Each structure stands twice: as C-alpha cells, then as structure tokens.
Amino acid sequence: MTTTWWLTEADLPLGRSGVRLSVEVVETLHDERSRFGHIQVLDTVFHGRMLVIDGIIQTTERDEFVYHETLVLPAALRHGAPTSALIIGGGDGGALRQALRLRSLTRAVQVEIDDTVTRVCRQHLPSVSGGAFDDPRAELVFADGARLLAETSERFDLIVLDLTDPTPGGPAEPLFAADFLRVARAALNPGGVLAMQCGSVTVQPAEVAGQLRRGRAVFTHVDLHTAVVPGYQLSTFGFLVAGDRPRPAADSATFARRWGNVAGACEYVSPEMYAASLAAPPYLRRVLGI
C-alpha cells in the first residue's frame, strides 16, 4: 500500500501572510539540487505530476495549459503575426509549445538558465513541452537570459518572460525590474510585444501591482490578463502584456483575423475568455491600482 504525504508550499515572495497550500503527494519522481535551486517532480492526487522548485509549484500536468495559453496567446494576438519569439525561462517547454502554434512563427529562441530543469521536465513531464524542443523552428540556449538580451543585437516580435517568482537574491529577481524591461523593450521589433507572469492576484497582489507599475513606466500600452490556475494556490493569476500599440477588441475583425494565426484547438483561451481575462472586479481594480 502506497503511503502518501503532504507538501506544504513555501512562502511566496511578496505573498500575503496567513495562508499556505498543501498538496497530497503519491510519489517523489525526482529530487535534485542544481546550481540554481532545489528541483522536484512529484506525483500528486489532485494535480498529477508537478514541477516544484525551492518548494514552490511551477507547473502541473492538470492545468499547465491554462497558464501557458494565457501567457503566450494574448501577446501573440496583440502583435498579429509574429515571426520571431524569444522565451526567457520556461524550462518546462510549455510556453515554447504555445508559441510554436503560431502559423506565422519561423523562429523561437528559448533561453533557460538551468539546464537541469529542462532535462528533468523532458524526462518526467514530456506532455508539457509536447515535442516543442524537437521542432526545427526552436533553438534552445542554456544561458543567463538577462545577460544574453543585454548583449544581443537581434530583435524579436515577441518576448515572453516565463520566470520563477522574484525571490530576493534568486536568478529571476533582476528580470522583474524596470531596468530589465527597458532592455527587453529595446530588443523588440516595431510593434513587438512583451508578455510575462506577474504573480497571484489573490495571494501576491503587491507583486502584481508593482509589476504593473514597472511595466507602465516602460511601455505605452500595458494590460493585465487574469486566469484561475489551480496549480498556483487555487487562485486567480496575473499576466502582463505590454507593447507600444493597443490591443484589438475581441469582437473586431482584426482580432478574428489574428485568431486565425493560432493553429489547433485551445483548451482555455477563446475569444470569449480573452475578453473575460481583461475584466477585473472593482475591489481588484482598487487593490491593484488599475
């Protein structure tokens, strides 16, 4: 008989106090410490297999599509027809998989600082990437994304920051700063769009509000999309989409034409959910300052 145990998630950076999430674990599939963090893959009752880094849930088999579709597709719809994409982080390959669904895309560069994450996810969570790493349009680079972006002369239509939480002193923290957002903006082609996760609206409202402020200090048009992602504290999660051109309305001909650039059926994002993801109730607008 298998004995289960409970993982209690570590405190989240800028998270509200007084609540923690516990998940029932069936089996530890992988446990390893890399140069950058403690990496685990756990088989759970509720979420299926999930990736945990430094005690914080990063992705789960059950609902990764909610996160990755909402992270990538609204930004692609804002642009229209991106041909090039840069993904910083996202070692599980889920963001890369969604970007490669864009019919217009000819090149996607993924820059992950920790090759251990990608190796472990390819072994234990292959459904998340769904073969994306083997797509001929994909280029996988293991390097410091902030340094690479600061040094490259290449320009991209779409930049996706699929980062871990901005833990003080952690590898992702500098990539949430306004200075880095300015570097990213300079690496965009005209009409280019940046997308990033910005934390749980429910549990980390200070992180979300701060990232919105930093984004608006750099970009002309910044939107907050939200989605309920069960793997992230069973909460409403925030996604920042920024550029220097406005987004199309969900009921416009422009949106319909751009939607046709997305190959295959979505499991979460639809024209209706795209529109709904931009709405926020009055109390959240007050809390987040939007």
TrEMBL record:
Residues 4-244 form the PABS domain. Its EC number is 2.5.1.16. It catalyses: S-adenosyl 3-(methylsulfanyl)propylamine + putrescine = S-methyl-5'-thioadenosine + spermidine + H(+). The active site is at D162 (proton acceptor). SUPFAM superfamilies: S-adenosyl-L-methionine-dependent methyltransferases (SSF53335). Keywords: Polyamine biosynthesis, Spermidine biosynthesis, Transferase. This is Polyamine aminopropyltransferase. It comes from Pilimelia columellifera subsp. columellifera.
